[in-house]
Amino acid sequence: MKLKDQFRFILQNMKKNKIRVFMTVLATAMGCAFLIVLASVAFGLHDSILRDTLENRTINEVEVYGGEEGQGITDQDIAKFEELEGVRAVTRQKSVQQEAIYSVDDFQAYAPTVAAHFPSEIASGAELAEGRLPEAADEVVVGHHFIPLLTPTEGNPDELYNEDGLIKEELQFDENVIGQIFTMEIAKTDGDQETTEEFDVKIVGVMKAPGREWEWDQHVYITDDLLDELETFTGTPGAALMDPSTFEDVSAEEVPYDQVTVIASDLESVKNVSEQLEDQNYMSYSIVNEMEQMNTLFTIAKAGLIFIGTIAILIASIGIYNTMTMAVTERAPDIGIMKAIGASPKVIKRIFILESSYIGLIGAAIGIAAAYVISILVNFGLPLILEAAFDEEMPAGLQFSSIPPLLIVIAVVICLLVTILSGLRPAKRATEIDVLKAMRREI
Amino acid sequence: MIDINQLSHHFTLGKKGDQTSLSVLENISFHVRAGEIVTIVGRSGSGKSTLLNLISGFIRPTQGEIIIQNQKVSEFDESEFAEFRLQHMGFIFQNFQLIPSMTAYQNIELPLILKGISEQARKKMTLDMLKKVRLEDFSGHYPSELSGGQQQRVSIARALVLEPPLILADEPTGSLDSETEEDLLRFIQELNKEMGITFLIITHDDEVARIGDRTITLADGKMVESVVFS
Ligand SMILES: Nc1ncnc2c1ncn2[C@@H]1O[C@H](COP(=O)(O)OP(=O)(O)OP(=O)(O)O)[C@@H](O)[C@H]1O
Ligand SMILES: [Mg+2]
């Protein structure tokens, strides 16, 4: 018997008892929708939190804080990191431990200053918007927001800024910044008295804007040689504004880096790099550590909710079992006749299993459609309700319910499995119908 | 065509622990040649239907073997027997056994569907068959909308549509009046002559027994006579 004919047969049979079939489909659809909506909350919140986490950090970065006893990272360690498997670059920065004042013509800015290792910064993915990397000791690169935050020294300080917190367009420094010589004012103290010194720096490049809109890069990136000069002047490591007599000779001692970031070549290597660092007794942190715990937690939550949803489908399956049992009983004489003229038990069984799985499939389809509608309503309505109730704005992009294809697949598989299982016994009963009894209308 | 060897059958009656055995057929042996019309007669309760049900595979013999077209069908399992019935046997029952929710057309088409014949071929074969039993005008009628004779013709059409070499009939004229019976008998003889179909017919009726080439008489589960007509 061809599948197409079996299918036609089923449709004919189902038409004979539309209301009963409809009710069974409805129950299945409700169970399926319940499962999907329930689990979609775990999927939605997981997505939201994951997205939030990923937005705040770059995922393939591993920050290294230091050795096991808190000792700082020096060039010797950096060399080791660069040897590790799956490492793309190791960026390292030493901050100037005071806020330097940069000025040119009638403009001035306090800017954080760091000495960076430029080749590794570039290797890590940082890019210049214009200009080039420093070559001479007094050449510097500035962050994207350095120029828009250069403050005019004249004019009313209250009227300088626009609503974005930047200097108003018409008041900004509007000359080409590349090649400009700025003076950099660094202070030092000998315990009681503070003196300042001016260093000339030449801007040779501007960094690209940071990837995320809310991030500001106002830094001035200087060379190691310039930092050495500053340290010699202040007599303190990192040119800190402290009494130099408390330190030994700064030029002789190696100053550790403030910030060392190992960039893995891809997401898969992050974990590997993290583990290698741990093996070598470095303290490090990467977002992957945190994500793993979170993922485990959410996987458990998802499985739990799917399990609860499955119970709903199991309840619906009682309806399918009932419907199929009644269908078999009702059609017993017909089944007997069919067997008598040569329908094999296999065919009979297949027809009934096909019928129950068809009910399951339609139920799943309707359930999926309903779940999508409910999910949209929840995502749209729940924030409004919560906002009204708690008088607090929900974080943007928070999604309560999300239905990924995987969830649909899981729901359909569970639905089909349960419906086929519940159709199995009635189908078996159909195959066991005795031809002679059925033809005598004894069943 | 059919070889019955030492066939015995008994039914087990009663509940477990308190069972009695009822012997219905004892040591039946006979042979039916291809193209023969063989009738089976005997008093009520003599075991005629049981014999036919054994040959049809609806029940399994307690002893002995049944060979049809050189196949030992008494050793078939249920699926094999079903397949064999579809391929080699047609059935005519006393009370027609049509599916009430199907039209005459659909009832006749059923064996073709079971065999997996394509829709196009099916249509032609079914319509041909309807014509053959002179029911072209009743193809859309449900069994409840047909007379007994018409219903019996539908059931004959269903039995013949796959052109089986063997047709088994248990009191085919039992529910028909004498005129319709005449019609049916003539039709059976026609099919036998034209298509060489072998018939095994159970009957109470002397009229029916007369069309047979041979008559097997059963009494109390034993074969008492096998009369050969000229
Ligand atoms: N399923 C069964 N279980 C128990 N006994 C049965 C069963 N079927 C038939 N019998 C018994 O077997 C015997 C023969 O029955 P069978 O139906 O073969 O007779 P028959 O010759 O066809 O009679 P009739 O001419 O009335 O149709 C009867 O005594 C009947 O009671
Ligand atoms: Mg009988």
Question: How would you characterize the overall build of this protein?
Answer:
The mean pLDDT of chain A is 86. The longest helix of chain A is centred in the C-terminal third of the chain and has 55 residues, at 287-341. Helix content of chain A is 51%, strand content 17%. Chain A has 10 helices and 13 strands. Chain A is elongated, with a radius of gyration of 36 Å. By secondary structure, chain A is α+β, with helices and mostly antiparallel strands. Chain A has 2 domains: 3-55 and 293-439, no CATH class; 91-258, no CATH class. Chain B has 230 residues and is an alpha/beta fold. Chain B has a single domain, classed as P-loop containing nucleotide triphosphate hydrolases (Rossmann fold). Chain B is built from 7 helices and 10 strands. Chain B has helices at 48-56, 78-88, 104-115, 119-132, 148-160, 178-195, 206-210, and strands at 2-13, 20-32, 37-42, 63-68, 71-72, 89-92, 166-170, 198-202, 214-219, 222-228. In chain B, a hairpin with a 2-residue loop joins β4 (63-68) and β5. Chain B is globular and about 50 Å long. Chains A and B meet through α1, α7, α8 and α10 of A and α2 and α3 of B. Magnesium ion is lined by residues 48-49, 170 of chain B.
